[in-house]
Amino acid sequence: MMPTPTISLAATTHSVSNNNNTATTNANNKNNNNEKINQVITPNNHLDSIIISTSNDNTNGFCYPKSVMAKSSIVSNIDPTNSDQISNNDHQSRLRRHMTEEMNEDSIYNVYLKKITYTCNNILNKQQKLQSDNFITRCDQVDYSSSKNLKKNGNNKMNHNQQQDDQQSLQWETRQLRQIKAATMEHLVQFILLQTEYQQQQHNNYNESKSSQQHHNDHSDSDEESQLESSDLMEERNNVAHVMHVLFATYRQFYYPWQLFTEIIRQKPFVSTKQFNFILFYWLNNYPEDFWTPCQPSMANSNTNYIDDQASSHNNNGSPENGNQLLDDQSSLCSEYASSSSLSSNHASYTTPSLSLSSTSNNVSNNSSLSSTSISSSRFSPLTLADQLISLRHIDEEVKKHCLHLLDMKKENTTNSSTLNSHSSIHKSVNKSSSIIELDPKFVAQQLTAIDLENFLALKPYTLLSNVRSKTRIETMIRNFNLLSRHVIITILQHSTPHQVTIHWIEIAHHLRKMRNFNSLKAIIAGLTNESIYRLKTTVWNKLPRNSITTFQNMSSIVDDVNNQTMLRHTQLFIEGTSKVSLEDSFGTVPYLGTFLTDITMINTRYENYIKTEKGKKLINFEKCAKQYEILMQMQLLQKNAIAGLQQQQQQNYQHQIYSLNHYLSLRSQSVPSIPRVARIFRNWFQLNESDLPSDREW
Amino acid sequence: MSYAYLFKYIIIGDTGVGKSCLLLQFTDKRFQPVHDLTIGVEFGARMITIQNKQIKLQIWDTAGQEAFRSITRSYYRGAAGALLVYDITRRETFNHLTTWLEDARQHSNSSMVIMLIGNKCDLESRREVRREEGEAFAREHGLIFMETSAKTAANVEEAFINTAQEIFDKIQEGVFDINNEANGIKIGPQLSPSNQKSSSGNQALGTGGGCC
């Protein structure tokens, strides 16, 4: 068995911690090792069952702690030369090794040993070296360093000179990394709330060592100490943040929102309020739509004391069954409420007017009264998670306020969108009956991009994980894609001079490439390469001017399927995905969704949803979730970049055919920039009657 | 690694018939590092041996993109072999075979070898398409036929290798013009016998058979 490679996680961890820095993509993979090492440091060292006693007789520079070897259930010890993939991967496996799996009752952790090499030309400056050095010694329960004569903390404080000497002789270190491989929902929630037994122990140990260290510190060290503490804490936060990101992005495959919500609330009495609120804020900000879904069924008729009671009884019985009901039917679950419009009908049993709180609902009037009255009307049965959240007594007012704020915003947006939709005006220059050839290619490309961008930005990345896509933006985008391809074919075949229309479409494709709209670009190329067009050698292709042919070939090669669409992936994610938006040509990258869908399919095929423990307990395969999240994050990255680009444009008052159209991000909490108004002719393209849609697998 | 020939395969069929599962079952045996699961040139590639010749199979799979009706020409272009997959527990996936086949025939060269695969034959109790129906369809359209289970790996090796064998035979017969890369066959960098590994060709099985 090969070890899981370092790279991916390195990139993830890092970019998670730099959410604002859009440039940190998986491109980090290409960073040099030194940098990577500094990025991937998980704070935790496992103490209760594993004690590292270093051995000097290692061959590859790795310390294999003997006590661990004896204890571990799986020890993978691969000879790197064995692998026929002698490449980066091999190099990575030298840096990090899967050492063991730590099996617990409700969780499985992967434990890695990571080699951290200090080279002479290390980029790290002395100060940083000092920090990392200190960090290791300070975790005094794990003696990494017997070979290097670093003393345990508190025993013998070394003076400054001694420390420096040690650094110079310090060639490498090993550090233990611990990552969740699988766990119950309860454990995951405890983890993000810093509430697992291990974390608690760490916390206590840390406090102890801190106090003992402070005792021995002289004044000159105290500055370092404070810096040290912050970097240490940051690392810990990164690890927790990663689990948090992954959990909230992927949990819908296993649980309804109310189940996760109940689990979090249940932990409330045991956790720090700060972390608890942080988690709730994160959830509200990033997935507000979860809170418009129905709350726990049994809650609908009981008062709010129920949850308090449940929480207080938590200590006695480990896991409540109501929150742990495992759901195998992931597809229906996921999509069901992603398309929130279906909620009211699905949960008709507790329908009241206020339940129709859904993003696509037209019942604006019904919604309007809800948020203002919900606090006072807590005697009514809570219906959505938002209602429940607001009605819970022990939740901070700030969280509630925020939730109300989101509700209001949602209401506003719903109102806006309905009014905006009702009188969508036609662009002056476009006659409804205009033939494609009369329209300026750049204008067409802009309009197509506006439509795509609207859909793409409103798309919730996690809906990619669902197999059922009805009523999601993904479905809309796929439908539009197919319609556009069909439109290309029809316009060419219907025209008296098909080659001129072809030239026109190639020109449009060229503009789409400049605007980084890979979705429509691929749709047009797909239309042009459809057999019905492609075979028109004499009437079309032989009549094209050379430059059109060249452009066509260039455009085709971008969206080509060759090598698992490497070219397309590379272009849309690495070259264009994160580069600065040029104001003239682009609104932001719109990717072709297909590659994401394929990647998700492969991951879903490759990994099981659950891992069973020896006792037959089903644990959520968190490794799978982390892999899925990597893909979702790529999409998120492009979305963020596009939004940033649009905001930039707005700031610069770029008014060329831009109108205010704010409804497309109905639930986003941040202020939304505008995208160009879409002329009706283009809307008409994509709003054909169902009868006009191509029959299955045909044009 | 040196190889005598490189064959390009494509896998086609409805959503959920197990295309990606077939591919991963065949190529992922060595437990490639997970990061390379989907990205990279070597994705979906594997070496096999037929008649003492190393053959590299490069398998293209766009599982997950079925809803995009317009599979681009480049997907089909230059494929030497195609696995046309349906799910024996879902009749409709069998009914769609004709459309897929038309698509494939339209976009690819005429000598492409097509293997019809009835997947999920481990789920005998839920079977909706009889084995004989699959055989009849294959006979009618001149395809090779096999029932597989990507889950238990039954017949998966055989499906890929028998297809390769068929292509290989066609090359020997001169049906495939190996100098024309549009046929989906590339000659390896080192075709001279001295450089080839002399492993036995026992992987190349002659006949297709059911697994259940």
What report would you give on this structure?
With 699 residues, chain A is mainly alpha-helical. Chain A is built from 28 helices and 5 strands. Chain A is elongated and about 85 Å long. The relative contact order of chain A is 0.09. The N terminus and C terminus of chain A are likely disordered. Chain B is α/β, with parallel strands linked by helices and 212 residues long. Chain B has a single domain, classed as Rossmann fold, CATH 3.40.50. The longest helix of chain B is centred in the last third of the chain and has 18 residues. Chain B is globular. At the A-B interface, helix 4, helix 20, helix 22, helix 25 and helix 26 of A face helix 1, helix 2 and helix 4 of B.
Report the order of strands and helices of chain B.
Answer: EHEEHEHHEHEHE
CATH superfamily of chain B: P-loop containing nucleotide triphosphate hydrolases
Quickly give the structural class of chain B.
alpha/beta
Question: What is the name of the CATH topology of chain B?
Answer: Rossmann fold
Largest sheet of chain B: 7 strands, mixed
- CA(first)-CA(last) distance of chain B: 36 Å
Keywords (chain B): ER-Golgi transport, Golgi apparatus, GTP-binding, Lipoprotein, Membrane, Nucleotide-binding, Prenylation, Protein transport, Transport
Membrane topology (chain B): Lipid-anchor
Subcellular location (chain B): Endomembrane system; Golgi apparatus
InterPro entries (chain B): P-loop_NTPase, Rab_GTPases_membrane_traffic, Small_GTP-bd, Small_GTPase
